[in-house]
TrEMBL record:
<dbReference type="InterPro" id="IPR031167">
    <property type="entry name" value="G_OBG"/>
</dbReference>
<dbReference type="InterPro" id="IPR045001">
    <property type="entry name" value="DRG"/>
</dbReference>
<dbReference type="InterPro" id="IPR012676">
    <property type="entry name" value="TGS-like"/>
</dbReference>
<dbReference type="GO" id="GO:0005654">
    <property type="term" value="C:nucleoplasm"/>
</dbReference>
<dbReference type="InterPro" id="IPR005225">
    <property type="entry name" value="Small_GTP-bd"/>
</dbReference>
<dbReference type="InterPro" id="IPR027417">
    <property type="entry name" value="P-loop_NTPase"/>
</dbReference>
<keyword id="KW-0342">GTP-binding</keyword>
<comment type="function">
    <text>Catalyzes the conversion of GTP to GDP through hydrolysis of the gamma-phosphate bond in GTP.</text>
</comment>
<dbReference type="GO" id="GO:0005829">
    <property type="term" value="C:cytosol"/>
</dbReference>
<feature type="domain" description="TGS">
    <location>
        <begin position="288"/>
        <end position="363"/>
    </location>
</feature>
<dbReference type="InterPro" id="IPR006073">
    <property type="entry name" value="GTP-bd"/>
</dbReference>
<dbReference type="InterPro" id="IPR006074">
    <property type="entry name" value="GTP1-OBG_CS"/>
</dbReference>
<dbReference type="Pfam" id="PF16897">
    <property type="entry name" value="MMR_HSR1_Xtn"/>
</dbReference>
<dbReference type="InterPro" id="IPR031662">
    <property type="entry name" value="GTP-binding_2"/>
</dbReference>
<dbReference type="GO" id="GO:0002181">
    <property type="term" value="P:cytoplasmic translation"/>
</dbReference>
<dbReference type="Pfam" id="PF01926">
    <property type="entry name" value="MMR_HSR1"/>
</dbReference>
<protein>
    <recommendedName>
        <fullName>Developmentally-regulated GTP-binding protein 2</fullName>
    </recommendedName>
</protein>
Length: 364
């Protein structure tokens, strides 16, 4: 029996098992086995001698956004509209066969947008070059999931299932569980909150399935067995996802209103160029980037060339971006903007910068 058959057998058993107190240990074990087999499936096969052709695109710009969706939902049209890159778009499926990069210039930042080939059902098992597409998506900062507004919710649930099975968690945060394997001493289990979904016995069963008999486990929040398995495996990617419903010019206003009110969702029409500016604003918010301007002593700030950093960046990050030796020669900095109590404020390396702050760095 191959890995795919084993996975489908376990999935069928999970589906037909009733969820109650008596079966929770059995379900936890099945989920642990399923995660193990899926991890094996993602490993490159040792027998394949010829090197497969990937979609490796060099990372450029300040952030990376991946476009994921089924064939013919308007990914290539969206790329052509947003960037100066022309991606071939036609009315038949699988027009795009490889990864096509483009650059969006917005608020002084260069955002790399990747147009990936359409995903089909079973992509996680390698159908239709699905593995390469998903491997590129794992390296992105934000995923834009392009959906056809005329198809309803079917596409969204199928794509989420495909991405979940390869360890991409959309719009979720990392579970607050401390886990450390040890050399001896058995399994030490503690929790700072009341657990309603996991018990000590279930945690031990899952760890034994992974051949872990000595470990320290501390639950700091009420997590499910799936989230605990994610912590053990450790190769999960947690990333923000924006659900973009295209072709809204083909559905009723009531349906557009319903889709637009969903969390993390934006409705657009590439054909009629509707709502694209709002999508860019949402994308900027999800990327959590900040622009910081520099100023020389006795001169006006340079608003033409911004330094783009992640939200929560400190003065030290700004120094490293300007020059790697600047932090070691740093004396103090003067900052104008919303991160200070008064302008200009004299700050040190640990001061957190905010969007559109102006900084002047003084060396020793």
């Amino acid at each position: 029996m191959g890995i795919l058959e084993k996975i489908s057998e376990i999935e069928k058993e999970i589906a037909r098992t009733q969820k109650n107190k008596a079966t929770e240990y059995h379900l936890g074990l099945l989920k642990a086995k399923l995660a193990k087999y899926r991890a094996q499936l993602l490993e490159p096969s040792k027998s394949a001698s010829t090197k497969g052709e990937g979609f490796d695109v060099m990372k450029s710009g300040d952030a990376r956004v991946a476009l994921i969706g089924f064939p013919s939902v308007g990914k290539s049209t969206f790329l052509s509209l947003m960037t100066s890159t022309a991606s071939e778009a036609a009315s038949y499926e699988f027009t795009t066969l490889t990864c096509i990069p483009g650059v969006i210039e917005y608020k002084g930042a260069n955002i790399q947008l990747l147009d990936l080939p359409g995903i089909i059902e079973g992509a996680a098992q390698g159908k239709g070059r699905g593995r390469q597409v998903i491997a590129v998506a794992r390296t992105a900062d934000v995923v834009i999931m392009m959906l056809d507004a005329t198809k309803g919710e079917v596409q969204r649930s199928l794509l989420e299932k495909e991405l979940e099975s390869v360890g991409i968690r959309l719009n979720k945060h990392k579970p607050n569980i401390y886990f450390k394997p040890k050399k001896g001493g058995g399994i030490s289990f503690n929790s700072t909150v009341t657990l309603s979904q996991c018990s000590e016995k279930l945690v031990q069963l899952i760890l034994h399935e992974y051949k872990i008999f000595n470990a320290e486990v501390l639950f700091r929040e009420d997590c499910s067995p799936d989230e605990f398995i994610d912590v053990i495996v450790g190769n999960r990617v947690y990333m923000p996802c924006l659900y973009v419903y295209n072709k809204i010019d083909q559905i009723s206003m009531e349906e557009v209103d319903r889709l637009a009110r969903k969390p993390n969702s934006v409705v657009i029409s590439c054909g009629m160029k509707l709502n694209l500016d709002f999508l860019l604003e949402m994308l900027w918010e999800y990327l959590a980037l900040t622009c910081i301007y520099t100023k020389k002593r006795g001169q006006r700030p340079d608003f033409t060339d911004a330094i783009i950093l992640r939200k929560g960046a400190s003065v030290e990050h700004v120094c490293h971006r300007i020059h790697r030796t600047l932090a070691s020669q740093f004396k103090y900095a003067l900052v104008w903007g919303t991160s200070t109590k008064y302008s200009p404020q004299r700050v040190g390396l640990t001061h957190t910068m905010e969007h559109e702050d102006v900084i002047q760095i003084v060396k020793k």
